[in-house]
Amino acid sequence: MPEDPRLKATRYRLERDARAAGEEPEEERATDAAASAAPRTPNALDRAAYVETAIQQAIRRGEFDDLPGYGKPLEGLGDHHDPDWWIRRKIQSEKLTGLGPPALMLRVEHAEMEERLDALTREGDVREYLEDFNRRVIEARRQLLGGPPVVTPTRDVDEEVAAWRERREARAAASAEAEQAEEDARRRQRWWRRDAT
Fold first, then answer.
1. So what's the pLDDT on residue 25?
2. What is the DSSP letter of 18?
3. Which residues in the chain come in under a pLDDT of 50?
4. How many CB atoms neighbour CB 155 within 10 A?
């Protein structure tokens, strides 16, 4: 393993200074030699230099030549400067939820309220979800954490439950109509097969 050039430079300076000041005692020279010969722990600069050297060698070998997207601009950067573009992309690609200031998370939840409620099957669950949502909105309004203001309104639990019930009944009626139409089509198909034979 080749010797580190910084160690050589340090030894050279020490020897030069020793010659200028007069010869140093043998035991100090032995201590200096032992200290310079002992392996040292690499620091951040050493690691960065090693990584950069490995990358440059891989580029020379052509290991990065056939990567997807080679020579193309990064997608989704847009025209304006956004220092957090990579965080936004990671959140979108990983479909992460629950990240962000409470004001924004509550706005998103408010916009998706009907879909979230329609996924629930019991009225008790709907009421519990709405009460929890209202509690979180009020709690976010009280906190002074900074960030965007909380402008999300609370929801009337009884009105939302009634609307959920109406949507559920409408879906059930539409489903029953679809099943009836499918059954009628099967009957006609059976009747047609009987007459054809």
1. 47
2. H
3. 25-27
4. 19
